[in-house]
Write a structure and sequence with these properties.
This protein is α+β, with helices and mostly antiparallel strands and about 220 residues long. It has helices spanning about 15-25, 45, 70-80, 95-120, 130-150, 165-170, 170-175, 175-180, 190, 195-205, 205-220; strands at about 5-10, 30-35, 55-60, 65-70. The chain binds glutathione. Glutathione binds near residues 56 and 110. InterPro entries: Glutathione-S-Trfase_C-like, Glutathione-S-Trfase_C_sf, Glutathione_S-Trfase, Glutathione_S-Trfase_N, GST_C, Thioredoxin-like_sf. GO terms for molecular function: transferase activity. This is Glutathione S-transferase.
Length: about 220
């Protein structure tokens, strides 16, 4: 297989494309990011790449695949490029437990954190019941992760190593201070979810996560 760069269609601020970038960095896969204007995502040219008209999407010239949905892209990247299984397991039950956590991230973390962001930042009216609902859901997700990590006593979600499932949570977690602004401190994450907090800090120190943090800053400042 050739080693031409993958095109990642992304956006400076949105967390989902950066989630894919972390995996590209981890696996040292050559890639280039095309930053899209939100206004172009629902146009036919982009909908050909992702029928849902959202980023991320990728085009891989090495295999000719075009793919949307961050979870599916991550599974494709590890299946195709993680030949040493550095971020995966090959056998049951771990292989499927990693998928369990990725699905939880895609269905439980991403959408609820996204709705919290919407009702805190963008909805034209301030609706207390909606804001409370999604803040409570964020607390619930943090609690699920914290309880799992504390009950297993492990450093990562599955087995003894960091997998793509752990990494898939990072970019939405990074958004929490922005979502709640001055009120973010009321979550008291370190005190209320200590195992989650330690896990998150561990992930934040990985070179791949540091790198995309810097790339995101650059993209946001237009450099
Ligand atoms: N389930 C999708 C969600 C993608 C998503 O919501 N992307 C945001 C940016 S982070 C987006 O494209 N928003 C534009 C829009 O809603 O029109 C995934 O995980 O890839």
């Amino acid at each position: 297989m050739s080693n031409k760069p993958i095109t990642l269609y992304g956006h400076a601020t949105g967390p989902n494309p950066w989630k894919v970038a972390i995996i590209l960095e981890e696996l040292k896969i050559p890639y280039e990011t095309k930053y899209m204007d939100m206004g172009d995502l629902k146009k036919p040219a982009f909908e050909k790449l992702n029928p849902n008209g959202r980023v991320p999407a990728i085009e891989d010239p090495n295999t000719s695949i075009t793919l949307g949905e961050s979870g599916a892209i991550i599974e494709y990247l590890v299946d195709t490029y993680d030949t040493t299984h550095s971020l995966t397991y090959t056998k049951s039950p771990e292989k499927y437990q990693v998928k369990q956590w990725l699905h939880f991230q895609m269905s439980g973390q991403g959408p609820y954190f996204g709705q919290a962001a919407w009702f805190e930042k963008f909805h034209p009216e301030k609706i207390a019941s909606a804001r409370d609902r999604y803040k409570d859901q964020i607390k619930r997700v943090l609690q699920v992760l914290d309880k799992h990590l504390s009950s297993t006593g492990k450093e990562y979600l599955v087995g003894d190593k960091c997998t793509y499932a752990d990494l898939s949570f990072v970019t939405w977690d990074m958004m929490v201070p922005w979502i709640f602004g001055d009120e973010a401190g009321s979550l008291e994450i370190e005190k209320n979810y200590p195992s989650y907090h330690a896990w998150n800090q561990r992930l934040m120190q990985r070179p791949s996560v540091q790198k995309i943090g810097q790339d995101k800053q650059k993209a946001m400042s237009g450099k």
